[in-house]
Amino acid sequence: MKSSKEKEIQIIMKSKTKRCCCPKCKVETNHRHATHHRKVQDLPILGKCVMLDINLFEFDCFNPD
Question: Within the chain, what is the greatest distance between any pair of CA atoms?
Fold first, then answer.
């Protein structure tokens, strides 16, 4: 019987983004508000389960408008 490591492909992803534009006002910011970690199942590759291990950032908008 195969171990779970032999049945699974794990891809570790980390955002390289240093700044982000606010989707509402389009002002650019580099102030990180939070970091989030997600595990997402993707489509299988060669019969193996694919898991995406994602680290991403949330940014704050300081535009008073």
Answer: 60
